[in-house]
Amino acid sequence: MQGGEQGGSQQGNEGGQTAQEEDIELIVTGEQDGYLVPSSTIGTRTDTPLRDVPQSIQVVPRQVLEDQGLTQISDALRNVSGVTPRKTYSNSGFIYDIRGFEAARTLRNGFDIQLGRGTPTTVTLPNTIERVEVLKGPASVLYGVFEPGGVVNLVTKQPLSDPYYEAEFTAGQFSFYQPSVDLTGPLTSDGRLLYRLTAAYQNSGSFVAFVNSEAISISPVLRDDFSDATSLTLAYEYSYSDQVFYEGLPANPVLFDLPINRFLNDPDGRIDNTTHTINLTFDHEFNDNLNLRSAFGSYFSRGKLAAYRIADFDYENNSASQFYRDQFTSSDYYSWQNDLTVKFNTGSIQHQLLLGLELTYRHLEYRPTSDSELIPTGIDFFNPVYYEGTIPPVEIIDPFSSSTTTVGIYLQDLVALLPNLKLLIGGRYDFVSERANSTFQFIPDPSQNFDSADEFKNEAFSPRVGIVYQPIEPISLYASFSRSFVPNNTLTRERDLIEPTRGTQYEVGVKADLTDSLSATLSAYQITKTNILTEDPEDPDFSIPIGEVRSRGIELDVGGEILPGWNIFASAFLNDSIVTEGDEFSPEGDTLANSPKTGASLWTTYEIQSGDFQGLGFGFGLFYVGDREAEVPNDFVLPSYLRADTSLFYRRDNWDVQLNVRNLFDTQYYESGDSGSFTVFPGAPINVTGRISVRF
Length: 696
What we know:
It is built from two helices and 39 strands. β4 (83-86) and β5 form a beta hairpin. By secondary structure, the protein is mostly beta strands. 1% of the residues lie in helices and 57% in strands. The chain has a 22-stranded antiparallel β-barrel. It has a five-stranded mixed beta sheet with strand order 3-9-10-7-8.
C-alpha cells in the first residue's frame, strides 16, 4: 500500500532515495497504508523516486482501492487524469484511453497480460492487486510495442515476513456478493521461505435485464530468500469469468429514449474466459553497484463465445438485425526479461546504467468459428422479443492464427549531473516477426498469388531523452521527448510492407512535494501519431499509411495526506485529440472516440484519530467526465456527467466494516462508446455495497 510494496513493474524495492545514494532493495518485508506512493519502477525498470523521472506517472495505491470499495479494478483508473475507462462487451476486456489514445494492452508486474482487442481476457478482481500504476506517454523505450498514450501496470500483492491473515465478505445490490481471503507470512522457522495466497469469488447480477456474471481468482506466491542478496519468487494466478453476453445500446439519439436496463442480445448467450498466469523471478545483488534481475512470465487464456450478436442497426424502424456466433479463442504468451543494473561514477557525475534484453513469443488462435445468417425477426429497441427459434444456417469461418516473436534490446542511463540536475537517456531496438495463416489483417489480390502465411518483419528504435531540474528540494521541473511504435503488418497494393505506426511525445511538467505526505504533478504534452492506415483511394482492398492524429493536453494530479487522518486523491485535465490527416472513415478534424476534452475527479476521506470514536470515518468523491464522441466518424455525442460516491467506515485493530454508495444522486449517464460495435454502455444507477473484514 505504499511505494515500498513491490515498487513497480518488476520486483519491488523499499525507500525513496535516488539509486545513486542507496542500494536497490529487492525484498519487501512490510506494508504501509496511505495515499502517497513516492517511488516506482514503471518509469525506469529500476526503483526510482517519481520526482526524478521526466515523465508523468500516477499510482493508485491499495488504500484508495479499499476506501472506494472497488469491485472491478478498471474503476481505479477514474482517479487518474487523462485516463478514461472504455467498456467493451460484457466488460470482458480491460481497455482504456490514455491521453486520447485507446490502450488495449496491460502489464501485470511488468509482463504483458492483455494483447489487444480480440484476445480472451477475464475480469480482474481487485483483491490480488496492491496498486495500479499509469505511465503516461510512449512506453516503447522500456516495454516495446505499445500505443503512444501510455500503459497501465497492475502490481500484485507479494509475500510479507510477518504473518497476516484477512477474510472479507462484500455484498450489495443486484445480488452482488464476494467472499475473499488474503494470507501471508513465513513457511519456515528461519523466515527464509515466504508465501502469500489471495483468493476471491464474485457473483453478481446487473441493473441490465438478464445480465449476470461470476468470477474466480486464486493467486499463490512463494519467495525463497536464499540470502540477503539473492531471492527467487514463483507466482501463479488462476482466473475465470463467465457472463451473459451484452453489447450495450445503440450509439444513436434513440439511446436517450431507452431505459438503461434495456437488453438487446440473447438472454442465453454466454462468454466465458479462463486464464493461467505464471511468473518466475530471480534477483541477485552481486555487490552495492551491480544487480541482476531475470524473470520469466507466461500467460495462457482461453475464451468461448456463443450468443446472438448485433449485425446492424435499422434506425428508421428502431430495430437491430442479429446473427448467431459460436467462437473459441486462445492466446499463449511467453516472455523472458533480463535487466542488469550498474552504478558507477565518471568524476563527480553519478550513473545508474540499465542494460536489458527481452524475448517474447505470442500465439493467438481463432479456432473454427461459425456465423449464422441473419435471424428472421431481428429485435425491436422498444419492444424486444428474444429469438427462440432454430439457429439459421451457419457459415464456417476459416480458422485464424498468428505467431509473433519479439526481441528487444534496451539501454538506459540515469545520470546525476549535479545533485539537483538529472538526465535520463535511453533507447530500445525491437525486432518483431509475425506469421499469420489467413487474411485476417488485409485482403490480398488473389491474382498475385500472395501467400498469407508469409512472415512480416518489422524493426524500430524507440528513444527517450529527459531532464529534471530541482531548484529547491521539493520541486522538480522536467522536460522529455519519447517515441512509440506499433507494427502495421499490412501490405500496399505494390506488395510492400507498410512501416510501423509511430508516436512522438513532447512533455514538460512540474512535480512538487507539497508536504512530506502530499505531492502533485502538473504536466503539458503533445503527442502525434503517424503512419496510420487509411483506405487506398486507387484500390479499396489495400491501405496506405497517410493517417495522422494529434493529442494535446494539460493534466494535474494530487495525492496524499493533508492532515493526520485526512487523505485526498484528485485529478483534472484538458485534452484535445483530433484527426489531422484522414479519410472518409476518419475525417480530418474529427475528435477521437471516447476522448473527453475535460475531466476531473476528487476523492477524500477523513478518519477520526483519537477519542471514543477513533477509527470512525467517511469518504466522498466526485467524478466528472466531459462530452465525448461515441465513435469515429463523429456523428453522436455522449453527454457529460458528474457522479458522486460516498463511504462510511469504522476500523479497529483486527476488524473493520464499510459501506459504499456509488452514484449517490442516481445520475443517469453513459460510460463510454465502442467504435468497434457502434454501441454505448450506460452507467449503473445508485447502488450500495457493504463489507466486513477480519484480520489476525
